[in-house]
Structure prediction request, 193 residues.
Amino acid sequence: MNIEYEATYENINKDDIRAKLIKLGAKLIKPEFIQKRIVFNLPQGHEIENAWLRIRDEGNKITMSLKVLDGDKIYNQKETMLEVDNFKEAEKLLTLIGCKKKAFQESKRELWNLNGVEVTIDEWPFLEPFVEVEGRSEKDVKKMSNKLGFNYSEALFCSVDILYNRKYGIDLDKINYNMPLISFDMKNPFIVL
Prediction:
């Protein structure tokens, strides 16, 4: 598996980040678009702790990934990804080999690039926008984070469930195993009435 050198910074202002990226000379690769994904548990007997499978429609491509997050440091994020040509067929394949669907999720994403470092401006339903800085090394991520005005010591190295947990105080198991839908067109499931 490859280490995914990625840092997350929450509660950002999208227009401020765009202005900084433009000033730095970053190239807008993809304007804001809706991403759709299905997240699966691994098949019984092949479980990996803190791992999941994901199929994601990125607009111009469809990817299938094995994600492993085995700690809260930048080097604890790992991913193996491949491109597939059909979202429904990929979903069918994972189901046929015994993977259990956990959730359908959508988010908004805008993709920028500067000197080989990807900066994404992300927005998930019921969360404030956040930025992910992804590079070939921790050094690249730190350097770009500093250019954007972020304090690297405040970076998060996590999946989005942690952001929901931080905002709403909801148990991670509830988020990961009892939220089968996260969509912009629904009532906020994270608010307990």
